[in-house]
Amino acid sequence: MTQYAVVFDVDGPLLDLGPAEEQAFFTPFKTLFGIEGLSNDWDSYRIRNDREIIHEILEGHLGERFEPDHYHALLDEYDRELSSGFAQGRLKVTLIPGALQLLETLSVTNGVSLGMATANIRRAAEIRLREAGMWDHVRHHPGAADEGGHKHEVLARVIAGLKLPPERVVYIGDNLNDLEAGKVNGTHFIGFHVGEAKRQRLLDHGARHVTGDHRETLALIRQMLNIAP
Questions:
Q1: 106, 127, 168, 205 — which has fewest CB within 10 A?
Q2: Sign (positive/negative) of CA torsion 45, 47, 49, 54?
Q3: Would you give the DSSP letter of residue 96?
Q4: What is the pLDDT of residue 34?
Q5: 188, 45, 59: which is closest to 112 by C-alpha?
Q6: Beta-carbon neighbour count of residue 65 at 10 Å?
């Protein structure tokens, strides 16, 4: 029986999004529509969510010609780009140190369920997490960008599916929108990033618990949920 849950953002706490994987997101725009020179500053878009970013780009470049089929065609091409990239060795996932061990430990902790709340398209997150050996740990509660909205809306959908009060949920993220998501939903929040600057940014904006080591992450989760080792 699920008594508690730990929900992870993907990029930052579990995986490091490298330049090649980042470029894979933009390649379908060029392949299908000839759209190039797009910004990889995710905060520059109206909503930091892959579904919303894709719509913003396509609507901006195609104007009145934009149709829903264009969006679905781009998702299919993105899927192919990731799948072929990993199969051919052009792409490779980079695991955050200690992340897989953390998931493995929590997966066998009595009463704890795991999930994700990511701004990635669900299928893209699944492909990358499978490559990392992590997908089976979070697949039962896979909150993603497909239904749109801000990160706090993605997390809210996960919490609703868990049927748990927010005080029994720990959310782990690396960005300010993750911090906001935890606050809006009333969950515990752990800011995680291996980079000191990212951790400091979270602290400067009010995060109470910030770490760059998943051994400390585990200790904080146990403390927040009152779970014995």
A1: 205
A2: negative
A3: P
A4: 97
A5: 188
A6: 10
CA–CA distance, 227 with 229 (Å, rounded to integer): 7
Give the residue from 209, 192, 174, 160 showing the smallest Cα distance to 5: 160
Phi/psi for 200 (5° steps) reads -65, -40
Rounded to an integer, what distance in angstroms lies between the CA atom of residue 184 and that of residue 203? 17
What is the block-wise mean pLDDT of the chain (229 residues), using blocks of 10 residues? 94 96 97 97 95 98 96 98 97 97 97 97 98 98 97 98 97 98 98 97 98 98 92
Compute the half-sphere exposure of residue 82: CA atoms within 13 Å on the CB side of its CA.
24
Give the whole-angstrom CA distance, residue 141 versus residue 157. 9
